[in-house]
Structure formats: C-alpha cells, structure tokens
Amino acid sequence: MRKRGSSQVKKDSLRRLQERYDKLWSAAIGKIRTGKIESDRVLAGGLIDRRRGLTLIARPSAGVREKVAAFLRELRRLEPDQYYYARADLHLTILSLFNATTAHKRFLAHTEKYLAAVNSALQKAGPMRIEFAGVTASPGAIMIQGFPDTEALNDLRDKLRQQLHIRGLTQGLDVRYRLETAHMTVARFRAPLRDSKHFAAVLACSRRRPFGSMTIKSLSLVTNDWYMTHQTLETLSRYRLLFPHSTLRIPN
C-alpha cells in the first residue's frame, strides 16, 4: 500500500480543522442572527473574575494583532456593549493545564510539578507557523480561525498531556473539551445585541477575511483569569523554541 505524501496529509488535516470551525459556525450563526446569544455571566454582571487557571500561551505577531484590532474596531462600532479583547490580551492557547476556576489554590500548590511537565514536553519543540484566516463563532463568543502549517501544535499538546499524566496532574485538564483547534477568542457577548441581523451579516462577510500569519518562536506559562486580561496575568516562565537545539527557558 502506497503511503500518502506529506502534502496530502497536510491537506487532510486542514480540511478536518476547517470542518470543526464550520460546525461551530453553523451551530452559532442562527442564534446570533436572532439575538439568542449566550451572555457571559461575569461580564454581564460587571463582577470581579476570581477564577484563575494555568495556561501555556503564544502571543500573536504585531501584524496579526493589528489586523485583529482593526476588525474589532469595526465590530465595536456596530455593537459597543459587547466585550472585545484588548491587544495586550490577544493570545493563542497552546494548552490550559487547568481551566480557570475559583478553586485554583489546590492546583497551584503543584506549580513546580506543572513547570517540570512543561519543561519536559518542550525539550524538542521547534517554531510553529500559524495562518489566521476567517471568523467563526459560538453562541457566546467570536473567534479568529487559526490553521497550523504542520501537526507540530497538536503533537506538542499530546506531549504536554502525557507529561501531566505522568505527574498525576490531569484533574483540571481538558475539562470543557479536548483542544484541537488553533483559534483566538477575540470577543464575548455580555449584553443584548442592538441589531443582531446586521451584526450576523457582518460576521458572515468576514468568514474568509485574512488576518495574517505568524511563526511561534516563544511560549509563556501564565496564571490567568478566564479572559486572559493583562491586569491579572502573571508569567511564571518563558520559553524560546529552538529545536533541533534544546528549548531555552528564559528566566523571569
């Protein structure tokens, strides 16, 4: 049996990823169009977010941030009552080691074990290229679609899960869903839409909008609230991805 070429494997992977984004879109856009959105309880109530999580993240490049910020300015003019991520808060989640929760102290008591797991998983991690193109949504949020150039991102996630499992640190892992996409959440609903039909139409026009590409050369392990706001975020460790040389942990 002849093996599939790498280009075909890549095409199949991108097709499956687009199918996931399309499924999200199909399940959400009708609700957005009719105003049946899911408002974030904390944002809607103006509450202080006391949830904290531990997350390995990458920051988008300056070019990607600028294109996303321009898109969010357009949305804000239409629906100013919603929550739009600040430039400093934009991020790509590599993996949430545990999801943000009010019961975070019991997880953070094992911070050194989490650090050891990340250090081990990143030993042979190299730079990863991501293309950001198009918009998808859920009933509660707007997301930018990300498309990795190779399987390196999900391979890294699997290594992280394996290292967490070895150390008995899987209790808070993949609680909501198993992360396999490369999206960036950029807006959340917190109030009724002023003109839901028009807003949905604008989103539909952005389904294939280009947001640029980036090569991830560094990662950060951070403690964070649910929205990754920079005011509450604390960086525990930074890493430069240098494979085939050893990954370098940067002192804070």
Features:
252 residues; alpha+beta; Cyclic Phosphodiesterase, Chain: A; five-stranded antiparallel sheet; 7 helices; 10 strands
CATH superfamily: Cyclic phosphodiesterase
Secondary-structure element sequence?
Answer: HHEHEEHHEEHEHEEEE
How large is the share of residues in beta strands?
25-35%
What is the level 1 CATH name?
Alpha Beta
How many angstroms separate the termini? 51 Å
- Beta-strand segment tally: 10
What order do the strands of the largest sheet run in, or round the barrel if closed? 3-1-8-9-10
**Domain module tally:** 1
Class of secondary structure makeup: alpha+beta
Detailed description of the structure:
The chain has seven helices and ten strands. It is an alpha+beta fold and 252 residues long. It has a single domain (6-250), classed as Alpha-Beta Complex (Cyclic Phosphodiesterase, Chain: A), CATH 3.90.1140.10. The strands form two sheets. The chain has a five-stranded antiparallel beta sheet, covered by helices on one side. The radius of gyration is 18 Å and the shape is globular.
